[in-house]
Amino acid sequence: MTGVARPTVVVDGVSKWFAGVVAVSDVSLVIEPGVTALLGPNGAGKTTLLRAIGGLTAPSQGTVTVFGENVRRNPGLYRRIGYMPEHESVYDFLTGREFVELAARLQGLDDRDRAVRRAIEIVDLDADQDRRLKTYSRGMRQRMRLAATLVHEPELLVLDEPLSGTDPAQRLHLRDVVRGLAAEGRTILVSSHILEEVDELADRIHLMVSGKLAASGDYRAIRQKLDDRPFVVRVDCADPRRLAAGLVGIEAVESVEITGTVGLRVRSRDVASLQRSLPVVARELGVRLTRVEPLDDSLESVFEYLATGTGA
Amino acid sequence: MTAVFVLTVRQLAGSRRLWLVLGLVSLPVLAAVVFRVGDSTTTSDRFADNVTRTLIASAILPLVMLLFATSAFGNELVDRTLGYLALKPIARWRIVVSKLAAAFVVGGVPIALSGFVTVAVVDGDGMKGAAATGLGLLAGAAAYAALFTWAGLVTRHALLLGLVYVFVWEATLAAYLDGIRFLSIRRYTLSLIHALDGARLATLDNPLSAAGALVGTAVVLAAFTALTVRKLTRMDVP
Amino acid sequence: MSADAGEVFDLGYRGYEGHRAGRWSRRDAIWRDGIRASLGLGRGVGGKVAPWLLLGLVLIPMVVLVVVAAFVGPATDPNDFELPSYADYHGWAMVPLGLFAAVVAPLLICPDRRDGVLTLYAARPITPTDYIGARWAAFLTVALGAVWLPEAVLFVWNVLDARSPGTFLVHNWDVVPRILLAGALLASVLATLGLLVATFATRRAYATVAMLAVLFIGSALGGIAEDDFSGGVADAVSLVSLPQTLDDAVHWIFGDEGDRPVPGGVSFAFLVGLTIVLAAWLVRRAKRLLRG
Q: Which of B87, B93, B232 is most worth mutating to test chain A (most A CB atoms within 10 A of its CB)?
């Protein structure tokens, strides 16, 4: 691999804790030009890590370097960084255009009008720019915030949950915008807690679970591992041992565990065929099912699996 | 820098609030007009002193400055919009000074003007007293602006603490206890007015000299501005 | 399973056929919530500081004074130590109570406005009058409790401390209705004003400062009118100083009129009228907020 000049962001052994909570735990990663997604369930520490990268908060331990400089207490660096925080609040009383103009002004841009016009065009809000932000829908507000974030054409864009509150059409549009910016050689860091959202968006992803970095790498490779994941289904019934004996014979079933006097946990890689076989087996054996429940449908267990290689 | 200044002015002077402040600052002027046309039981000097002291300097000035200055950063913190200012390549002191100036202009200037006009109306004889009152109030407004802007950035309870400072500390303790009278912005304001025009507030108890009052104001202004800049630099921006 | 025709499944959904609580329990619910909010219950330690501190300042000085009186004994020279009169203590009580109205009343109104919760209230079968009435009643309950308690303590002490409590009680039974009336006056004026001011603001801070402005600036204006002017108009303007006017009215209730430009009875009538006007305005504001 040819050496990239220098990675845009270097996070080295960063931990952040407050009030007895460890939000980020010893994370080290490197962000290079292109689109990188930071994924993880809510509370995984994504926002805290992004805030440390953006200089909004100081890490309790470790260093964050952006463009080779310390990002903290270095306002000049913000000329090259565009940061979109997760809070959706804005200055209500400003019009959309005034909001972007404010950002342009504070960035000290020379050709302000052209930059503002271009930014608003990119997010496709020309029609509504003269209305007050108070009257905007949530998705429109997100887009105008994005316009303000990229009005100064920053080399690094950090977007915290930019897709929240957007409908599928807006999501596609934003995806095109982001990919367009990446094609110009910029570095874009996006966070999300919905895996599907970053489909077609990110080249590389970093997964965080409970403050730790769980996985890094190519998006497609990680996606593939997901499809291989075994599921665990909880089955409560009147005669678990008898049902267990019957289920073990099904090919789709990887393992059956008897828990207590009424329950089973069935691991399977092929949920569809388990769905078909389970009632048939139960009826043949004359066992009455009282409860059938997938145990690890949550995103967290998905991430957990990827992080530790084991299921729930 | 002007962008932050204008933004803050717009934040603070929402139309209803502006009318309220204008209403408040016209009260002393109204009282002065009534004094001139009605039957009063006191001399113009004593009346002017009474209005300046009890109505303007001890009530209107601190309350209005408290409201505007604590909101300068307070609103940004509560609304979580501080990031839009902090994530820009501007020196932190520019942000602080702009906000402080906005609070001063929106709150302090109208009050100083009202003081000026009030004394001018009451004491039709020469502008010296009026000018002294206006300038003294400006100085007080600047000091309050610095103190309360800092409080608004540093704590959620800025308003409550500001109220305690004004109505417990300044009203009671600093008025009666000699040792700490130097730590009261109200005292700087009143002393400065008296120092600029001896006829004003002649009954003031142990006033500071002009130098003393100015130094006190300058120290408060400089110290709390610096503290605010320091806090903004070091804090975690919400 | 058919691929094209849609199907609606009967999951056994039922409307609610059970008992629906009446109007009074709706009012009661908002009243209870108002009490909790006024006392800072359910808001963690920080939320309790302001209300408990201020309410404590209303009650505790009287308790302290009574305890001191108990130790000091009946033979003391009144010049050294004397318990305050019922009327005089109200003069102190209105200070923390006024602050309480300024700081805590906004808590009942402004968060609902700011968080957009008012529309939730409006979407329920509760009338604006009921909503604001319940809020007002809640705040008033707390304020009345706060102002009546120290007076009750004083009265009870006076009864017990008398040579013959029975006779004392018979001769002074009229103190009790006076205490009730004075406390009711104080509490209603401050509560109504505090809530009304709060309906004009979305941020609690603004409401607090506005209420204090009314109290302090009114006091300054009233003082100026009284000190520096004479004549009927000046006397009327002096009523603007709520603290002073309240004090005069309370003294009148206890039959203790001083030498004031405006007779105590007039002050009392003015305050009652003012409270009614403010209450009507408050109801109008509530209607506007819950409809808008």
A: B87
